[in-house]
Amino acid sequence: PLETTKNIWHNGNLIPWDKAQIHVMSHVVHYGSSVFEGIRCYAQANTAGVFRLQDHMQRLLDSAKIYRMPVPYSAEQLCSAVVDVVEANGIAPCYIRPIAFRGYGEIGVNPLKSPVDVYIANFPWGKYVPGNGGADVCVSSWSRLAPNTMPSLAKAGANYMNSQLIRMEAEINGYSEGIALDVNGYLSEGSGENLFIVRNGVLYTTPLANSVLSGITRSSVITLAKQLGIEVVEQALPREMLYIADEAFFTGTAAEVTHLSSVDRITIADGKMGPVTKVLHDEFFAIVNGLKPDRYNWLTPVNVK
Ligand code: PMP
């Protein structure tokens, strides 16, 4: 069950958690007309910081723009709203969920006549992809969104119907997550994670053209890898690259950096976290946990007592 907090930010005001309700005839309930974000706030020794807040809010506005959804707040206003709600609720570490959607107005498919509502909630949340030694995953029988059907670069609620099919199938069959191929049969991403493969010291990830979300953790890992002198290649990858990989891992706000132990019950190398994954994993956590300086200005401080 979801742990509740005191306040949720709604269209510029903090309102009580229990009052953050919508009508059943709201457009979003019927047609999935929402765009949202998932953001983590990390605790450091004496402070707390929201990870890449500006980038998340820019992606929210980008998602809204793709769907012609006017959000009457700038990225800066949304960033300060996040700081306000996290500080008001006094919880860090936490997960932050901003969402904009088409609310109560018209019930036809065209969303343009329904009002846009913006909410920001936060709550405590732990590990996302289960598996201590690493995740045992499968390649999904479901494909990822085809280009020209649902735009993958928008983090839209409706996209997660596809993610739900992938994740349910995986869990029902005893895996912790599924990796979907794109419509051309190339690797795409997990139901809520980007995918990386290491082979012969080179770090591969699927490009945005293969129906993936432009993950903020993905971009962070690419930045870290380049600075650490690891060659990064974004290219279409066939499914079997996973089976013969030296290492493979997921990235995501929820998943952070989670290594894959096996895919389709084929063990990746020896199933343990490999050296390239480890160096990236450790560097990522050193920065977000404040053990190393925040050299990319990834953390927005919040004052949580
Ligand atoms: N792909 C999908 C489909 C996702 O839902 C997510 C989680 N937002 C990601 C990738 C990872 O993106 P990020 O690192 O920005 O959380």
UniProtKB/TrEMBL annotation:
Name a GO CC annotation attached to this entry. Answer: cytosol
Example GO BP: amino acid biosynthetic process
Q: InterPro entries under this entry?
A: Aminotrans_IV (IPR001544), Aminotrans_IV_CS (IPR018300), Aminotransferase-like (IPR036038), B_amino_transI (IPR005785), BCAT-like_C (IPR043132), BCAT-like_N (IPR043131), BCAT_family (IPR033939), Class-IV_PLP-Dep_Aminotrnsfr (IPR050571)
This entry's Enzyme Commission designation comes to 2.6.1.42
Q: Which reaction does it catalyse?
A: L-leucine + 2-oxoglutarate = 4-methyl-2-oxopentanoate + L-glutamate; L-isoleucine + 2-oxoglutarate = (S)-3-methyl-2-oxopentanoate + L-glutamate; L-valine + 2-oxoglutarate = 3-methyl-2-oxobutanoate + L-glutamate
Q: Which Gene Ontology molecular function entries are recorded, alphabetically?
A: branched-chain-amino-acid transaminase activity
Q: Which co-factors does it depend on?
A: pyridoxal 5'-phosphate
| Pathway field | Amino-acid biosynthesis; L-valine biosynthesis; L-valine from pyruvate: step 4/4; Amino-acid biosynthesis; L-isoleucine biosynthesis; L-isoleucine from 2-oxobutanoate: step 4/4; Amino-acid biosynthesis; L-leucine biosynthesis; L-leucine from 3-methyl-2-oxobutanoate: step 4/4
Which superkingdom? Bacteria
User: Keywords on this record?
Assistant: Amino-acid biosynthesis, Aminotransferase, Branched-chain amino acid biosynthesis, Pyridoxal phosphate, Transferase
Q: Which PROSITE patterns match?
A: AA_TRANSFER_CLASS_4
Q: Which Gene3D superfamilies match?
A: 3.30.470.10, D-amino Acid Aminotransferase, subunit A, domain 2
Q: Which PANTHER family match?
A: AMINO-ACID AMINOTRANSFERASE, AMINODEOXYCHORISMATE LYASE
What is the documented function of this protein?
Acts on leucine, isoleucine and valine.
- Which family is this sequence assigned to? Belongs to the class-IV pyridoxal-phosphate-dependent aminotransferase family.
- State the name under which the record lists this protein: Branched-chain-amino-acid aminotransferase
